[in-house]
Amino acid sequence: MQKSSKMLHSTMLTMMVAMGVVISPLLRVEGLCPMAHFINVVCAVFLGPWYALASAVMIGVIRMLFMAIPPLALTGAIFGAFLSGVFYKLSKGSLLAAVLGEIVGTGFIGSIVSYPVMTFLWGRHELTWFFYVPSFVLATIIGGSIALVFLKALSKSGVLTKIQYKLGGPVYDLGKHTMGD
Predict the structure, then answer these.
(1) In 93, 101, 151, 167, which residue has its Cα 20 to 30 A from 144's Cα atom?
(2) Is residue 129 within 8 Å of residue 73, measured between CB atoms?
(3) Residue 181 maps to a domain
(4) pTM of the prediction?
């Protein structure tokens, strides 16, 4: 990766983290943070699975340190962020696949991993293994749907292609739009 490309990736990652921290309180209740899932999907589509994972970790840590959010900020984001990027890549650019990756990763894997974390580290002994599944699935559907509408609008206007092209990553709808500035 070229030096300018690394700088652009770092800048985009920083912007995604900042937006994630700022908008995460919208619609948030414990176990339900749809705007985090919006950021996960958008970051996965723009930058790929590893950057989406890094974004989710950074947002989660910042939220835990400065907003007194429990470890759900991590368990409820990292799996979905990564799988969103993986599903997007494996499907060769399906935005719906990116959303499904978020739903599978967070809605199911992240919610189940949250049980031992919240029980043994946070002292929430009244929980069951599937306690967070309904709220995590609902949050991923809400946040993923918002991301899908947003990304489809970017795709339709050609902006998604331009962003992906400028970032030097895979551009899946290359034939649909021109690369002009």
Answers:
(1) 167
(2) no
(3) no
(4) 0.89
- Structural domain boundaries, residue 130: 3-176
Cα radius of gyration (the chain) = 16
Distance of CA 10 to the CA centre of its chain: 16
For tokens 């990116």, name the residue. Answer: 98
Tokens describing residue 117 = 């974390």
Kindly give the residue spans of alpha helices, DSSP state H, lying in 2-110.
Answer: 3-23, 34-47, 49-67, 72-75, 78-90, 95-102
How many CB atoms sit inside 10 A of residue 3's CB? 7
Domain count, the chain: 1
> What residues have CB less than 8 Å from 47, skipping those under 6 apart?
9, 12, 13, 16, 55, 85, 167, 169
**Is residue 148 a part of any domain in this protein?**
yes
- Residues pairing with 32 in the sheet: 29
Token look-up 């580290």 returns: 121
Tell me how far the alpha carbon of residue 152 is from its chain's centroid.
16
Q: How many Å apart are CA 102 and CA 98, to the nearest integer? A: 6
For the segment 23-61, what is each residue's pLDDT rounded down to a tens digit?
887 766 666 788 999 999 999 999 999 999 999 999 999
Domain containing residue 9: CATH number: 1.10.1760.20
